[in-house]
Structures are given as C-alpha cells and as structure tokens.
Design a protein that fits this description.
It contains seven helices and five strands. By secondary structure, it is α/β, with parallel strands linked by helices. It has a single domain, classed as P-loop containing nucleotide triphosphate hydrolases (Rossmann fold, 3-Layer(aba) Sandwich), CATH 3.40.50.300. It has a five-stranded parallel beta sheet with strand order 2-3-1-4-5, sandwiched between helices. The longest helix has 24 residues. The protein starts with a strand and ends with a helix.
C-alpha cells in the first residue's frame, strides 16, 4: 500500500511526505526527482529543451512506474493528477491525499522559491498570483478526487496517520 500526495506546487507534498515516510518506515519517492534521474536533466531543462507536452509524457511514465512500488509515500508533481489517466491510477489501489493550501499561503511559498520552478521563474508577483488562481481553478477538481483532504497549512504527519488508520 502506498500513500500518494497530490496538491499544488508549494503545498508541502515533499516536506510532509518525507516526515510521513520516516514515521511509517516507508520509502519516500518524489516523482519530480525520479523524472530528473530518468532524463538526467533538471525539470527546468526538460521544459526548456522539450516543452510541457514532452514533460507530461515522461511524468506519466515515471508516475506509473512509481505506483508499482510498495510501502512508499509518493509526492507527485503539482500537475501530475491533471493529465492523462494519472488521477485514476493514483486512486486505484493506494491511499490518495490532497494537501489543500490556501491561495495566500501558496503565493507566499511560491514567491520564495519560484526560481526552482520552470513554470513560475519568469513571472512577476502579480503574474504569479493570476497564474496561481487559474491553476487552482483548473486543478482543484482533480485534487478533490483524492480519498482524503487535509489542510496543508496546518496538518501534521501524526494527524494524517491517525485519520487514514495506518
């Protein structure tokens, strides 16, 4: 059984995922890190050299491979659940969790680290806010298909473990 974390960039999937994995004695898998290893390039380089369509195809392939692992906490990329049949695959046999974070908190978090995110790095704060609102509207229906929804601003790993019964 795996635990798959979905949510917007900056929602805490990787940070909380590492803590959850350690507490559960599971392995932690960051899909973006696996993509970088698979392609031997950074996410930013993949986007720059091949574009988003190519990236999404690689992301799907890597995600489907990762979903075959066992006893893993898996942090997906923010857009992963929204393409192809990814969300259906995520929900199939594993525990899916949406880390829901307020738009204000996401904006603050993403402003601080936007250099590391290829879709955000060139955006002004106003452009980032507009982009964020659009992506939230577009992606939320996919994220809300998760089995559990937790407030990413305040939820601790212990609460997740207690609620999902592991």
């Amino acid at each position: 059984m795996n635990i798959i974390l979905v949510g917007m960039p900056g929602s805490g999937k990787s940070t909380l995922g590492r803590v959850l994995a350690k507490m559960l004695h599971y392995q932690f898998v960051d899909v973006d890190e696996r993509i970088e290893a698979h392609e031997n390039k950074t996410i930013a380089s993949i986007f720059a050299e091949h574009g988003e369509d190519y990236f999404r195809e690689v992301e799907r392939k890597v995600l489907h491979e990762v979903l075959n692992e066992t006893n893993a906490v898996i942090a997906t990329g923010g857009g992963a659940p929204c393409f192809y049949d990814n969300m259906e695959q995520i929900k199939k046999n594993d525990i899916s969790i949406y880390l829901k974070v307020s738009q204000t908190a996401l904006l603050t978090r993403l402003q601080a680290g936007k250099d590391k995110r290829p879709m955000l790095s060139q955006k002004s704060d106003d452009e980032l806010n507009t982009f964020l609102l659009a992506k939230l509207a577009e992606r939320t229906p996919f994220y809300e298909q998760a089995a559990y929804i937790f407030e990413g601003d305040t939820t601790r790993a212990e609460e997740i473990i207690s609620k999902i019964g592991i």
